[in-house]
Design brief:
- By secondary structure, this protein is mainly α.
- The protein has a single domain, classed as yeast vps74-n-term truncation variant domain like (yeast vps74-n-term truncation variant fold).
- About 55% of the residues lie in helices and about 10% in strands.
- The strands form 2 sheets. It has a 3-stranded antiparallel sheet with strand order 1-2-3. A two-stranded antiparallel sheet has the order 4-5.
- The longest helix has 18 residues.
């Protein structure tokens, strides 16, 4: 799958070429949290005593993650997680993610609106839009018995805690999907299976 934040952005697009009004406000902090979660998965940052620090400044070659990594690395002292969530939201990372997806030709921009770009099945061997393929994979995990990777678990945790399952599942699927997600992201003692700092980042960016 793509990065967690790319995937969330794609899922949140409606057929009219914009972000769904019901999720747009929530999505800003969730996307920023997803960027920070990716940096943790890439072992570029760590969270210690609620403060983010860079453990490896090596670029990831992804423009969104590298921008955030540079900003965190260049601070004079470690800042709290809440500081970074608020700062990156203010810096309009949501728009940057949309632009990045246009550059990658995942989305196309027409009259200031973003639309999913359909892939040429003959040249790529893939059918349908990336949106459809993402939803198909999430259905395999939550409605079937496919085993998720850690990044997919984090994605599901964002969808669950931010109450965004509606952007990934049809109304008739949501109840079953949410039950499956709960089983995947919590153990029998109701402790997060993501571990720290991923669970902390997810929870704080979904408040």
């Amino acid at each position: 799958m793509d990065t967690i934040f790319d995937t969330l952005f794609i899922l949140a697009l409606d057929e009219a070429g914009g972000l769904r009004e019901t999720v747009a406000e929530t999505l800003e902090s969730v996307l920023v949290g997803a960027v920070l979660a990716e940096l943790v998965l890439w072992k570029r940052v760590e969270l210690s005593e609620d403060r983010l620090t860079v453990t490896d400044p090596t670029p990831t070659e992804h423009m969104i993650m590298d921008r955030a990594l540079f900003e965190i690395h260049e601070t004079t002292r470690p800042r709290k997680l809440r500081y970074w969530i608020n700062t990156l939201v203010f810096e309009e990372y949501l728009d940057e993610i949309g632009h990045h997806l246009v550059v990658r030709e995942v989305l196309v921009r027409r009259k200031k609106r973003l639309y999913l770009a359909l892939k040429d099945a003959e040249s790529t061997g893939e059918k349908g839009s990336k949106h459809d393929r993402i939803k198909g994979r999430l259905r395999e995990i939550t409605l079937g018995d496919a085993q998720p990777e850690l990044s997919e678990l984090v994605l599901l945790a964002f969808l669950y805690h931010a109450d965004l399952t509606k952007i990934a599942f049809e109304h008739s699927e949501r109840k079953k999907a949410r039950k499956r997600i709960i089983k995947l992201i919590f153990d029998e003692d109701e402790v997060s299976t993501l571990g720290d700092p991923l669970d902390t980042i997810v929870m704080m960016s979904c408040i």
